[in-house]
Structure formats: C-alpha cells, structure tokens
C-alpha cells in the first residue's frame, strides 16, 4: 500500500515539475497564456469575475512568477517526499483556486474533468501516508523508543520472612 502511495506521490510530483518547467521555459506565459485565460474567466458577471478583473489581472506578472515557482516547489516536494503534506496542500490550493475561477462547480462536467481529478488527488495526498517510502520526510521523523515496561512487583511467598 505505501509503495503505491509513493508511486502516486512521485508521479504527481513529476507532473507538477513538468508543468512548472514548461511555464518557466515559455517567455510569453504571463501575456500569452495566463492573461487570456484569466480574461475569459473574468467575463462572467459575478463576484469571481469582479475579483479577477480588479485584483488578479493587474498583477498577472506577479501571479505568473508565483505560479511558476509554486509548481516547481510542489513538484520537488512531492518527488523527493520533502514536506509532502505541505506540498500537497499548496497544490490543492492552486488547483482549487483554478477550479473555482473556471466555475467547475457550476455543472456536472466540472466534477468529472481533469481539474477536479487533480484536486481530489492532491486532497488524497494530504491525508494519505504517502511519505513513508522513498521520502526525505523520513529523515525528519523523530523515532521515539517505546517506554520500557515497568518491572513486575516483587512477589512474596505467604509465610516467608523475606
């Protein structure tokens, strides 16, 4: 069981690393990919669209840098099993924000799409013991020895003077 969790953790970590590297290597990521996607999400006439228009779009370059760094750090965290739960939580937060911004909760299709599947995978990695095999987290776990059992009480034989 734990080796399959390690396989899942490492595989998902590689996907995060590849995604982050592709964003880093794309010089037009902020203006050519992220800004049009956010603009499309902002077209909806609701609170999410207003938030994206007023807060996110003016800071698209900062968001692009943060997403690149976060995806690389999440990938490193999951591949090497270093701060696994924290990395999985950060990945969950990023995917959850994307799922909410693209209104994945509005239709049944939003619950069967790839974004929702990644969202549930990240949630699973937060709660599953995925850092027990092939993980640097094992180096930081303090191994506490079980307390020694109490010695048995002295036995006295009835009628003895000892």
Task: Outline the structure in words.
- This protein has seven helices and no strands.
- α2 packs across α4 (60-80).
- The longest helix is centred in the first third of the chain and has 24 residues, at 2-25.
- By secondary structure, it is an all-alpha fold.
- Helices cover 65% and strands 0% of the residues.
- The radius of gyration is 25 Å and the shape is elongated.
Describe the structure using short key phrases.
162 residues; elongated; mainly alpha; 65% helix
Q: Given the structure, what is the number of helices?
A: 7
Q: Provide the residue-averaged pLDDT.
A: 85
Distance between the termini: 56 Å
The helix content, as a percent range, equals 55-70%
Q: In angstroms, what is the radius of gyration?
A: 25 Å
**Extended strand count:** 0
Largest sheet: none
Task: Tell me the overall shape.
Answer: elongated
Low-pLDDT parts are none
Q: What is the percentage of strand-forming residues?
A: under 5%
Question: Which class do the helix and strand fractions yield?
Answer: mainly alpha
Helix-strand string: HHHHHHH
Secondary structure: elements and pairs:
Layout: H1 2-25, H2 29-42, H3 47-56, H4 60-80, H5 84-101, H6 114-127, H7 137-140
Helix pairs in contact: 1-4, 2-3, 2-4, 4-5, 5-6
How is this structure best summarized?
The protein has seven helices and no strands. The protein is an all-alpha fold. It is elongated and about 95 Å long.
């Amino acid at each position: 069981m734990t080796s399959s969790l390690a396989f899942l953790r490492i595989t998902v970590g590689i996907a995060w690393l590849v995604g982050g590297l592709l964003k880093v290597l794309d010089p037009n990521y902020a203006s050519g990919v992220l800004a049009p996607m956010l603009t499309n999400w902002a077209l909806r006439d609701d609170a999410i669209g207003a938030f994206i228009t007023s807060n996110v779009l003016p800071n698209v370059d900062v968001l692009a840098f943060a997403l690149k760094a976060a995806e690389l750090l999440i990938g490193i965290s999951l591949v090497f099993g270093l701060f696994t739960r924290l990395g999985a939580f950060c990945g969950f937060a990023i995917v959850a924000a994307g799922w909410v911004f693209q209104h994945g909760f509005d239709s049944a299709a939003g619950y069967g799409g790839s974004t929702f599947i990644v969202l549930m995978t990240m949630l699973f990695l937060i709660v599953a013991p995925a850092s027990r095999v092939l993980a640097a987290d094992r180096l930081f776990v303090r191994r506490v020895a079980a307390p020694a059992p109490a010695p048995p009480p002295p036995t006295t034989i009835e009628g003895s003077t000892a």
